[in-house]
Amino acid sequence: xxxxxxxxxxxxxxxxxxxxxxxxxxxxxxxxxxxxxxxxxxxxxxxxxxxxxxxxxxxxxxxxxxxxxxxxxxxxxxxxxxxxxxxxxxxxxxxxxxxxxxxxxxxxxxxxxxxxxxxxxxxxxxxxxxxxxxxxxxxxxxxxxxxxxxxxxxxxxxxxxxxxxxxxxxxxxxxxxxxxxxxxxxxxxxxxxx
Length: 194
Fold this sequence. Notes:
Low-confidence stretches: none
Strand content: under 5%
Mean pLDDT: 90
Shape: elongated
Number of strands: 0
Order of helices and strands: HHHHHHHH
Largest sheet: none
């Protein structure tokens, strides 16, 4: 139902519309290795900031592609490709964010809380997908509702972008949350001196 409304809004076929979610997933696959390397070598803060910027830019591009009054001056063909490119950018951002739960639980939580922290943080991504899939039918009844859906999806992306850019300030807490984390930091310090 939603796909039909979106295809009608963008004036594309169903196959062309399928490119929007497909490009998001496809863009994330090769980025996984780059994201893992950057998070491991540069730290959690760098990974979160890259993911936040990319999420904000991709979400903004999708939102602007259909934003009321602005979209009146953009042909449907360009709106469609803005949405495809925006989804591609958010797809690139995804591995930077999805790699975060284990790093956060490893460095910010004591041993007895790590499993719960990893589970809760790891479940946030699928929970967001479920909520998005659940509320989309309520938001989109007609093709003219697509801009409001894009605005509704951009709001949490914007909040996450702001939090990622301005709130995440450190790779590690000032004091290790556990003895194992303290031991790991000491070992890393010794390795850096060699």
